[in-house]
Amino acid sequence: MTVPGAQGVVMGSAGRLLLAAKLTNPARFIAKRSGSSSWTKTVIAIDLTGTSSLTAKALTSLLWFVYGSAIIRTKDGGTTWLAVTNPKVGNDYWVDFAVDAGGRLWGLTLDTNPWGVVKVWYSDDDGDTWTASTTLTGTGAGDANYMRWLSCHPTNQNIIVVFGAGGANWGGRARTLYSLDRGSSWGVNDDSTPAIINNISGGLRVLASGRLVALTLNAAAINMNLLTSDDWGQLWTNRKSIAAGGNRPTGPVGNLLGNHLFFRHKGVVYWSVDEGITWIAFDNDPTYDLAAGIAYDEVDDTLYIFGRDNQTVNVGLVLQMRPVTQGGTWADFSDTLVPIGAETHYHVESNSSNHMSMIPR
Known about the structure:
361 residues; mainly beta; Neuraminidase; 4-stranded antiparallel beta sheet
């Protein structure tokens, strides 16, 4: 990867991005840009990363969530941000959100005490009120739940999928909770073939073909695995395994059909053109070892990465590649990202899920 020098910034195509990271004090900042304008930055005086998983997720053009140990939401495209109250029953905490093809908002909560209670919720008013759809409760040390990822089919509103770890010691099996009738009924599948222990970073995508693509990492950060399933999680196939070395991967992201998929690990971006079966590495830069963010804009065929830690200059904080599918090159997209108010730099979390999200059109 070639990062442009400080002598200039190449803006390239207009991007629609949502970013989140932390400042030197407990506050966090949120940055957005849309069209040809520069970054708009907001300081949030709430510590969103008491846990180690800061996530930014833009679900529609106006409805966005940023969450870690706390959660905030905007319904007006970032003009106002308000705290979200968890649907508290015990120790439930939000861990993921998605919007189905019919526009319904889905949310996933996890209570790890004592053996993991997973709850799937839906909302028809952008998260003002929530209705419980299903609950999956761990029964003991040999059957615990640690399910963190939620995804919806891109064109079929009836298909909702939750993925994570299940079984003894909070893992050991890939556990899939799924609905084919928009939450009226749910099924559960376990597969012990891929060794998954407390998958704590990564994500899940449901492709247009119905294939599931999951990026996982075990709790000890020993290795990461890219898995696919064509039968709602009855059988998962490990397509790519990489020694993690303490770093956490981000992704997968890609286009609607799923024939262009990407994930990022350390300074390397991996690309698949066959719905996650095979992967090639097309970029490597050790200065970008923090896997803090990756996003793909299908309309512009543009890939973005985010995550150069502790930088005080607007160079290489966000990079843009376009067109990706025709072998584009990286350009700096940082513009005026720092300073943020009185802050001169930000920090990214090397063990976060994804600090970056495309803002849908």
